[in-house]
């Protein structure tokens, strides 16, 4: 396997989430050629061995993509085109849009097509018929709760998981969930997210006037912020002076109402999304980073908080116990339990500096030893090589 | 405001769309007014397919959705109407909006958007929700009609959280307010609204339909709990599930049926799954009126544990059926159910307290249960029937 690998990383949109972008750049650094397909939201200056083969969300761009790749395939790989056309005709409800999405992939014909979101699995299962290895990431909602509420989705997973060449699990816990839908254990490799710890070492902390709690995440019920707000009510009633800032939820009317309803507007700030550098500073300044989620793979923002030497309290939801060793490098509490959340916050508000430092030093070491970008990339390349070893 | 009110005035009711069958409040109101000889005109923003045509004229009050071409055509028509058909009214609206401090461009937009109101001759312009008055605060004055606004719950308690001071202009006007309960009246007063301008008219239900003649009380060991509501966060269904999980851990054998659909289904199914009660919860989806009644007939305890609620017709229907009702103290619910008399009111956002109350209710003697059922039934029949609501609205428009 000495030739340069062609890896397609597909999330549907370009650019993708922070951690998928980190993955893309990391794979490219290993010398593999990375191809990004899908819809381009904005232009990104990638390095030379990252190729963007994308269309914009307008009719002209899609038409141009369709014509360009129809002609190329017709002239040089007409048999493949005919075969794909037959597949599209028998499986797709939107023939034209499917061609816009699929033709560029068929033209590039990567060695591995790495699909980031499981819900799109049925749509992309055709790639295997052209010798492209299909790797699926097992992430968040797609595995953890959507198939529980949606029987059709669970049925789709049962049909298509056995056909996947390799799975990337973001945690052992999510790997276990995938087994319920027919994923083969030997094909699953847990590769934890990682970060470049050097980017988190130089942030100076500023002492806050009151006990400072921070959460960062998308505005979604699975993040469990309702429980955090209920916990804050208990803190307030106990007389603790504190400030809780939740980033990314300013427009969430349920949470705004909840804070208002419990008369916590002086204690809780629900703020809009912020630039990454500001978020880093906010987490660094906090006494506690709180993850009240109901389910997670491994929450990337917790890796960042630990790298920033901020104490983490996380619910024991999914894969978080693979990162946090309770009372050694952070704290784990049960899901859906505002009382225990409040109790743990009060314990930390009374912790002396020596004990705080012991926890945060250990958290930093955990990230440095087990959750680095280099480890993530090495794990991913290993996964790609394992699915390609028989070819 | 000089137009003389005749004995049978014309009421213009402004809604988002034609009320569906399940929106009993507006269906009943329109029907009641029409039956009493009032002329009703319904103004709606969206005129999509509707299930039942109400007995009144329907006018589309806004026509700026759809394709760009469609919007352009309708805007052109409205501009021509403003210049050639309603120039005086249009200018008056522009002046009044400017006086309220609205930006020039928005005043022009309002003139274009509100043209459909100008062709109607009405005595009262009654907005069905507070939010429907945005950018229409001066329309009633322009067409020489009295103005009324109904607040329903979300528009009084949630909209101001989304849009700060969104009613500042409205509350300065000399208009009449309709609210569903005392709690809402108190809230309105905190905005310095004159209490004499506020009238409480609670919702009403069809007490003849929701009667208890056919109640088949479940005598088996499985307790049937029911909630009828949209699957929306404000209905407090996650808290309800948590309370029921506590009861399950105490060994209670139950089925909980949630009748309704909504965007929170995935969240609720996952909550039931994580709480270990998924097999005990039935997400029944949308039910017809008859199916709702059938389910209520088999229910032991009706639960409505909302975190925000104007009043709630479903609880009235349950009481009318003689059900034991346990509700939260969210806004109008504690007036809907009288604690310890027609049901039980529990502090909201407290699943432990809810579980505790449900257990206590189940343990009550049959005599006590029977007393509560009777009082609930009688109060629903006497105080929340359709004819009282009709009379109240007729009085409202006479004032």
Write structural notes for this entry.
The complex is a heterodimer of chains A (391) and B (399). Chain A is an alpha/beta fold and 391 residues long. Chain A folds into two domains: 205 residues, Rossmann fold; 173 residues, 3-Layer(aba) Sandwich (Rossmann fold). In chain A, the strands form two sheets. In chain A, strands 1, 2, 3, 4, 5, 6, 7 and 8 form an eight-stranded parallel β-sheet that branches. In chain A, helix 10 links the parallel strand 9 and strand 10. In chain A, helix 2 packs across helix 4 and helix 10 packs across helix 14. The radius of gyration of chain A is 23 Å and the shape is elongated. The model of chain A has no long low-confidence stretch (mean pLDDT 93). In chain B, helix 1 packs across helix 18, helix 11 runs parallel beside helix 12 and helix 14 packs across helix 17. The N terminus of chain B is likely disordered. Chain B is built from 18 helices and 13 strands. By secondary structure, chain B is an alpha/beta fold. Chain B has a seven-stranded parallel β-sheet, sandwiched between helices. In chain B, strands 10-9-8-11-12-13 form a six-stranded parallel β-sheet, with helices on both faces. In chain B, 42% of the residues lie in helices and 16% in strands. Chain B has two domains: 208 residues, Rossmann fold, CATH 3.40.50; 161 residues, 3-Layer(aba) Sandwich (Rossmann fold), CATH 3.40.50. The interface between A and B is medium-sized, with 21 and 22 residues.
């Amino acid at each position: 396997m000495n030739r340069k690998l062609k890896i397609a990383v597909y999330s549907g949109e370009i650019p993708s989430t922070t951690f998928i972008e980190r993955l893309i750049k990391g794979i490219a650094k290993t010398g593999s050629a990375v191809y990004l397909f899908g819809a381009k939201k904005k232009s990104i200056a990638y390095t030379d061995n990252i190729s963007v083969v994308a269309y914009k969300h307008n009719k002209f761009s899609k038409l141009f993509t369709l014509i360009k790749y129809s002609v190329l395939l017709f002239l040089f790989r007409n048999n493949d085109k005919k075969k794909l056309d037959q597949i599209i005709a028998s499986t797709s409800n939107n023939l034209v849009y499917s061609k816009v999405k699929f033709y560029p992939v068929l033209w590039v014909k990567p060695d591995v097509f790495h699909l980031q979101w499981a819900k799109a699995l049925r749509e992309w299962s055709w790639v295997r018929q052209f010798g492209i290895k299909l790797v699926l990431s097992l992430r968040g909602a797609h595995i953890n709760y959507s198939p529980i509420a949606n029987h059709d989705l669970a049925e789709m997973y049962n049909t298509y998981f056995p056909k996947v060449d390799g799975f990337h699990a973001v945690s052992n816990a999510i790997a276990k969930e995938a087994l319920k839908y027919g994923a083969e254990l030997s094909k699953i490799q847990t590769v934890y997210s990682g970060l470049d710890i050097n980017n988190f070492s130089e942030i100076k902390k500023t002492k806050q006037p009151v006990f400072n709690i921070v959460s960062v995440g998308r505005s979604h019920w699975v993040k469990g912020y309702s429980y955090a707000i209920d916990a804050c009510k208990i803190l307030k009633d106990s007389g603790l002076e504190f400030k809780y800032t939740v980033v990314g939820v300013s427009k969430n009317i349920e949470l705004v109402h909840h804070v208002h309803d419990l008369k916590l507007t002086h204690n809780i700030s629900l703020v809009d999304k912020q630039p990454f550098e500001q978020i880093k500073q906010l987490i660094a300044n906090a006494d506690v980073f709180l993850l009240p989620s109901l389910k997670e793979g491994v929450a990337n923002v917790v890796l960042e908080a630990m790298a920033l030497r901020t104490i983490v309290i996380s619910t024991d939801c999914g894969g978080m116990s693979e990162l946090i060793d309770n009372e050694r490098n952070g704290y784990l509490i049960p899901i859906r339990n505002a009382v225990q959340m409040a109790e743990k916050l009060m314990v930390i508000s009374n912790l002396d500096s020596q004990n705080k430092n012991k926890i945060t030093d250990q958290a930093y070491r955990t990230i440095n030893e087990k959750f680095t970008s280099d480890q993530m990339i090495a794990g991913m390349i290993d996964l790609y090589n394992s699915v390609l070893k028989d070819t | 405001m000089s137009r003389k009110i005749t004995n049978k005035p014309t009421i213009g009711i402004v809604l988002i769309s034609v009320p569906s069958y399940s929106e009993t409040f507006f269906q009943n109101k329109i029907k009641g007014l029409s039956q009493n000889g009032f002329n009703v005109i319904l103004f709606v923003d969206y005129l999509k397919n509707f299930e039942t045509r109400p007995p009144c004229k329907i006018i589309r009050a806004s026509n700026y959705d759809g394709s760009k071409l469609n919007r352009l055509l309708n805007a052109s028509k409205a501009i021509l109407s403003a210049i050639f058909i309603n120039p005086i009214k249009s200018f008056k609206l522009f002046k009044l909006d400017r006086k309220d401090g609205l930006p020039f461009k928005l005043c022009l937009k309002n003139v274009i958007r509100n043209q459909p109101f100008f062709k109607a001759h009405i005595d009262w312009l009654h907005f069905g929700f507070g939010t429907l008055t945005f950018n229409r605060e001066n329309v009633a004055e322009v067409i020489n009609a009295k103005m009324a606004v109904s607040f329903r719950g979300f528009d009084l308690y949630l909209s101001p959280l989304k849009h700060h001071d969104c009613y500042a202009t409205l509350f300065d006007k000399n208009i009449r307010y309709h609210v569903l309960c005392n709690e809402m009246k108190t809230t309105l007063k905190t905005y310095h609204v004159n209490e004499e301008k506020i009238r409480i008219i609670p919702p009403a239900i069809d007490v003849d339909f929701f009667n208890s003649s056919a109640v088949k009380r479940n005598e088996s060991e499985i307790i049937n709990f029911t909630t009828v509501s949209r699957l929306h966060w404000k209905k407090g269904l996650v808290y309800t599930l948590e309370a029921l999980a506590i009861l399950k851990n105490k060994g209670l054998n139950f089925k909980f049926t949630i009748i309704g659909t909504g965007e929170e289904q995935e969240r609720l199914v996952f909550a039931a799954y994580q709480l270990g009660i998924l097999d005990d919860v039935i997400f029944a989806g949308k039910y017809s009126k008859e199916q709702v009644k059938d389910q209520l007939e088999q229910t032991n305890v009706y639960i409505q544990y909302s975190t925000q609620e104007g009043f709630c017709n479903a609880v009235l229907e349950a009481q009318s059926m003689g059900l034991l009702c346990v509700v939260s103290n969210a806004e109008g619910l504690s007036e809907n159910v009288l604690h310890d008399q027609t049901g039980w009111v529990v502090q909201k956002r407290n699943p432990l307290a809810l579980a505790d109350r449900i257990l206590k209710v189940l343990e009550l003697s049959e005599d006590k249960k029977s007393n509560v059922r009777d009082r609930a039934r009688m109060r629903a029949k006497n105080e929340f029937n359709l004819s009282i609501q009709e009379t109240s609205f007729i009085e409202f428009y006479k004032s």
